[in-house]
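Researcher: Please generate the 3D structure of the following complex. Treat every line as part of one assembly.
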Amino acid sequence: MGRYFAIRIARALLTIILVVTFAFVVLRLSGDPSLMILGPEAPPEVLAAFRKAWGLDDPIWMQYVDYFGAIAKGELGRSMRDGRPAIQLVLERIPATLALTLPAFAFKVALGIPAGIYAALNRGSAIDRAVMITAVAGFTVPSFVLALLLVLVFAVQLGWLPSGGQEGWRHAILPIATLGLGGAAVLARFTRSAMLEVLGQPYIRTASAKGVPWRKVVTSHALPNAAIPTVTVLGFMVGTLIAGAVVVESVFAWPGVGRLLVVAVANRDLAVVQCILLLVALTMVTSNLIVDFLYGFLDPRLRAKGAHA
Amino acid sequence: MSPLVSIEGLSVAFNGVPVLHGVDLSLRKGEAIGLVGESGSGKSVTWLAALGLLPRHARVSGSVRLDGREILSAPAATLDQVRGGRVAMIFQDPASALNPVLTIRKQLCEALALHRDLSGDALKVEARRLLDLVGIPDAARRLSAYPHEFSGGQVQRIMIAMALAGNPDLLVADEPTTALDATIQAQILDLLSQIRREMGMAMVLISHDLGVVAENCDRVAVMYAGRIVEEAPATALFDDPWHPYAQGLIGALPPLDGPRRRLTAIPGTVPDPSKMPAGCAFAPRCTVASEQCGVGAPSLAPLGDARAVACIRAEASRRALLGIAAE
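Model: Done. Output below.
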């Protein structure tokens, strides 16, 4: 068991290093931050001074070494725009993002999982078909289209809700609905297929054959087995809590991490972008580790394998 | 003596395609019946249908009575009492027949709690006794293990223990040894016979293996394409099968003694349920089929002592032989 997790943690660290390296290289090859921040009309000597100050004239490998050296000391760099520590800028935005993604996550779980279970138990019924059509629509429609649609209906036509900004809870409803509906659709489809797979297993028939009432067959025999694949999707959704709202935050002018990322990329504010990506990689990797741990908890077969690995 | 279970005109259709065409079968208390036939002949479907274990899209009709009480259209609560409590069933593939995420104790105690007035420590004691009974060594410790920690033969033993939990009057064993090694097969069959004798339980042994059935059953019903085509005491069937299909099955078995002979094979394959021939379903493969065989499906006609056959040719020749006038 210990080794099972040691290997997974080592793999997680490697993933983070790869993500950060990739971001580092791509950002530095994709444009000159001095031009972006100071503008193309800035005098050459000002640009040169800027580049020198931020170490942008150094060879890329030297910048890379410096960057990792700083990370080792716990420094994630400063924003080139206002000189404040990048981590501080990012941390300031996290509550706003979580204010959208956490309720959206709860919404996905509360709607998607029961809908999927219900559809599976009533396979082929009108309700099953309705759930599935909604689910397919829910995850094929891009979130910005759904967002604009919701704005059109609830903000423009009906005038019930604001179309953007962050003044109060009413402003959060449409962004949360946009995030939640798409996620609920994915979860519903996934839960349904996991349940159908499990319901077709011989051990379900065994349970019925020994006289277990159907309701209990579902709750104590089918659900614990269907939970195993569903946890994978949930883990992925937890991984997107920090940066899963980039599009939605942009559409609704919501000042979260996603918007910060869009602005920072446009400005080539290197330290800020890198800081966000590092954070995203960390949450993804952590949620994957939690999923691995949960697998061991939910599935005794994996627990055994882990013990021997 | 009134039969324990009597099945009459049991028919099943999946999505409008009939797979079981009016099966009649009855079973006395303590009796062991073998159900043989190729896969797809309806052996398992007969009992899954009788116990209401088929998927919802299956159309089931006919009558299944347990001690004279109709159970086919019985409410779910009644069926839950019957299943496991009066009639238990074990299945072919032990590897997937137990829930992989629950311990053996949980699965065994669940069955005990449902059908016996036991709780707390009494449950655990009884669970341990059942595991001992089916020959799982170190039962006390093994109760907290999960299904994947047992071999196929052991899981089948656990399945049997679970089936016995409700003290059933009938155990339906659906190909209980097909997925197991030959040596383990014999052990499981011995265990089943021994338990059956001790508990006075009736048994239906579903198998495609004639030898297994011959050794363990009093009576045998041969199924073909969703119908029982011959029913006879086990020894009578093996000595002198009447139905051409049963003759074919037994002709395909190598004789243990006597001169060596060429094994005969039945030509062709079982017809697809959706393309069933008119008349006798076996006629296209039958060496003695006549024109008349294509006209109507023969019904199972009782002939002589405890035998019945569904074949107009066999029926005619037996009647001539036995001197019974045609009805």
